[in-house]
Design goal:
By secondary structure, this protein is of the alpha/beta class. 46% of the residues lie in helices and 19% in strands. The chain has 16 helices and 14 strands. The strands form 2 sheets. It has a 7-stranded parallel beta sheet with strand order 3-2-1-4-5-6-13, with helices on both faces. A 7-stranded mixed beta sheet has the order 8-9-10-7-11-12-14. α1 packs across α14 and α14 crosses α16. It is globular and about 55 Å long.
Length: 410
């Protein structure tokens, strides 16, 4: 890799639905001559030019790089021009490996929006050592999955150390409230994961492992709770339902613990769910969400039903929530940390904008900027990493100052 790349960040897949949101955010935040040097990339020069033109006349100098996800030579040439590649090109299990390989081999830092644990596990197995040797920091899951969860746990553990001199032994995250739409890209990733699992019994077993993303020698043995049904949550005094993102978030958190030298403890436990309220109404809502989630996962795993979902029910890739829904969206998360002696700490994490899109665009943009400008290679060396194991307080500050994400002890 050349000593001084031309750009801090290149957005690869800039013409995708979320790529356009990221491009718009970076343009409003940094423009051309701001604190971050950046460019946009994708396989169609015509569509990239249309995207740039839509930003206005002042964006005429915004760099464009043409590269295809299936052309390794293109990808390596792109890597040589950037400190960080921000990739939105998914499903990553279908289109992402060549770029991770190029980044790992050229020493180029990378971040993405991946919520596909089976693919992240493959990338860790194949490229963690290569990235470690080259110095490339490969950071998956830098959107709503899994920055609020991973950084929320990290933040609460820092506070526990300050207050108690030890980490929380058990942390629960509950989605208190949220509003936002569902995108075609997210659904496409979930359906592809279900398709892979339906054909591979070994993969189904791996996906059930809460420590799937941890290094082989992680040594963790604590039994983890993964909620699959409606239940009354005594700690939060409400009914709760399964949270669909828990499958990726919890595994990212456990990998963070492993990469951070087991700083959360050998017996650390972590779980996630959605709160649905009290009484009969809360119970009914929890049951409805649990049934709907189970039905969707069952349908996604069966070929004919999956095809019907793709054709008639779920959004197509490239589709997403309306601008109005993006603006009106939000999320409220509550973390409850338990110490080994009965101590408790509470943390509230909130974000403005549709969680999966408007807020995600801001989160991954600031993660990429943090990777390019704040995190030294001496402090964080190469490998297949996680947000918490990479960014620490630098990203917390950026999220609060520039991404409308707040971390507040209760």
């Amino acid at each position: 890799m050349i000593a001084k790349p031309r750009y801090d960040v290149i957005v690869f897949g800039a013409t995708s639905f979320v790529g356009k949101l990221i491009t718009d955010y970076l343009w409003r935040q940094y423009g051309i001559d701001g604190a971050l040097s950046w460019g946009i990339a994708g396989r169609s020069e015509e569509r990239l030019q249309e995207l740039r033109d839509g930003l206005g006349d002042k964006a005429a100098a915004l760099p464009i790089i043409v590269a295809s996800a299936d052309d390794e030579e293109d990808l390596r040439a792109m890597c040589e021009q950037a400190r960080v590649i921000l990739s939105t090109v998914g499903p990553y299990a279908l289109y992402g490996e060549l770029l991770v390989k190029a980044c790992a081999e050229t020493g180029t830092d990378y971040c993405d929006l991946c919520g596909e644990p089976q693919w992240i596990a493959r990338m860790a197995e194949r490229y963690h050592t290569i990235a470690g040797a080259s110095g490339a920091r490969i950071v998956h899951s830098c959107g709503f999955d899994s920055i609020p969860s991973d950084m929320g746990v990290w933040y609460l553990q820092q506070e526990a150390q300050k207050a108690w001199g030890k980490p929380c032994q058990h942390i629960q995250m509950r989605v208190v409230d949220s509003k936002g739409g569902v995108s075609g890209g997210t659904v496409a990733s979930m359906l592809n994961m279900a398709k892979e699992a339906s054909k591979d019994a070994t993969l189904r077993k791996k996906l059930a492992d809460p420590y799937l993303l941890c290094p082989p020698d992680h040594g963790f043995r604590a039994r983890q709770m993964e909620q699959k049904i409606a239940r009354y949550d005594r700690d939060f005094k409400q009914w709760s339902a399964p949270f669909v993102m828990a499958a990726i978030n919890t595994r990212i958190v456990h990998r963070s613990n492993a990469l951070l030298n087991h700083s959360y403890g050998e017996d650390f436990r972590y779980d996630e769910a959605m709160l649905t309220g009290t009484g009969i109404k809360g119970s009914a809502m929890a049951g409805a969400i649990a049934s709907a989630t189970g039905a969707m996962l069952l349908g996604a795993g069966l070929g004919p039903l999956r095809s019907a979902l793709e054709r008639y029910v779920v959004p197509k890739p490239g589709e997403g929530p309306s601008p109005k829904l993006q603006r009106e969206g939000f999320f409220v998360l509550q973390f409850l940390g338990h110490g080994s002696g009965g101590e408790k700490l509470r943390l509230r994490v909130t974000g403005d904008g549709d969680p999966g899109y408007a807020s995600t665009a801001k989160m991954i943009s600031q993660a990429a900027a943090c990777l390019a400008q704040d995190v030294s290679h001496k402090a964080v060396t190469g490998g297949i990493l996680t947000p918490a194991a990479t960014f620490g307080d630098d990203l917390i500050q950026r999220l609060q100052q520039h991404a409308d994400v707040e971390f507040e002890l209760q």
